[in-house]
Amino acid sequence: MARTLNVAVIGCGVIAPAHIESYQLLPGVRVRWACDLLASKARALADRYGIPGVCTDFRDVLRDPAVDAVSVCTDHASHAPISAAALRAGKHVLCEKALAANAAGLRQMFRAHAARPGLVFSGVLQHRFDPAMRYLKRLVEQGAFGAILTAGTHLRCLRTADYYAADTWRGTWAREGGAVLINQAIHFIDLLVWIMGGVAMLSGAHTNLTHKGVIETEDTAVASLQFRNGALGVIDATCSSNIAWEHTLAIHGSDGAVEWRNGCALKVAFASRARTTAVTKALAACVERQTISAAKAHYGAGHPAQIADFVQAIRAHRAPFVPAAAARHTVEVVLAIYAAHHRRRWLRLPARGQAADRNDE
To answer: Is 65 exposed, middle or buried (0-12, 13-18, 19+ CB in 10 A)?
Structure first.
């Protein structure tokens, strides 16, 4: 029988319960610490879930030799220093999105992991576990769309002044690294990038249309992409919409097209009628089943699956399904969109190395 795996959750905000409930679904896993800068938040979460340890300094967690792994659920800017310190302390790390707020943070994290490559280091991108998204990726890999021509993702949502006022780090370049792109849209940017096999180059623009005086970052953004497979793509995102939450993923090829919105197929059209029927049935069968109570609807049902994979990777001494390097490319795409806006030109994404960072200009 495998020994108990002890984990700590660092950051006790809105996403922490999804991590805790996901860990508590797994046999042989114990959440040992709840850590937050505010003792009251850590204590409330510990009391709610029966967690024995409470602290306000993540270094107390890292000094505990019984802790095997940590979930980093803090503000974006602290992801890198906490994750790097945890890796140096010999802890496996699961870090929430966005993996880092800037390129310097990415460098810090990956230097630490390079020194401890045997540790599992994963970034939370839970929608990669959605059955429909996995199926669409398989279709792309199988060539079902023929020559892929265009692919895009679109997010319309609403984040109010009250939302930004609730946490001072939100809507700041220094602590969030941006706004709608790096926070809400990043999940769907990731799906697009992952399904299409990565971005080679891009251009982009962003603006603040309805949140002036509220945030210093963008509430609306667009980007044009060229994927590594040669296809072209688009991203558009806004958190100023009257639509509370709507995300769309579209793939169009010479032999077929699929458009997916909010968990439903809007269009399935292939040159082969038989393939159209088969894909329509397969997508209809891709039902998400939520197994935790803490997750908001737009989180999807992927947190338990990703956290189970993280634990299994630790126990099997294997790479996780979402290695941190994959989460890094998604952040590099977002950072490059910001940089392309300021430089007014197309930017090439490096095959290896660091993305352009707006603070490195």
So the answer is: exposed
SS3 readout for 56-99: CCHHHHHCCCCCCEEEECCCHHHHHHHHHHHHHCCCEEEECCCC
Token pair in block for residue 286? 């891709």
- Report, as ranges of residue numbers, the positions in the chain whose pLDDT lies below 70: 1, 294-298, 300, 352-361
Supply the DSSP symbol for 3: P
- Report the amino acid identity of residue 35: C
> What residue ranges define each of the domains in the chain, with the CATH number in brackets?
5-126 (3.40.50.720), 127-287+323-348 (3.30.360.10)
Longest dimension (CA), the chain: 61
Residue reference for tokens 């795409």:
333
> Helix, strand or coil for residue 127?
helix
pLDDT value of position 1: 56
CB atoms near residue 361 (< 10 Å): 8
- Per-residue model confidence (pLDDT) at position 361: 27
Question: What Å distances lie between residue 354 and 103, 336, 351, CA to CA?
Answer: 6, 10, 9
Q: How high is the pLDDT of residue 98? A: 97
The CA–CA distances, whole Å, from 344 to 103, 226, 333 equal: 19, 17, 16
Res 287: pLDDT: 82
d(CA 293, CA 360) in angstroms, rounded, equals: 41
Query: Looking at the whole model, is its pTM more than 0.70?
Result: yes
* 303, two tokens: 């947190």
Number of alpha helices (DSSP H) and beta strands (DSSP E) in the chain: 11, 14
Three-state SS for 229? coil
Angle between helix 103-115 and 76-88 (nearest 10): 10
Pull the structure tokens for residue 163: 């939302």
Q: With beta carbons less than 8 A apart as the criterion, state whether 77 and 101 touch.
A: yes
Amino acid at 310: F
Torsion angle of the four alpha carbons 141, 143, 146, 147, in this order, in degrees rounded to the nearest 10: 40
How many other C-beta atoms lie within 10 A of the C-beta of residue 259?
A: 16
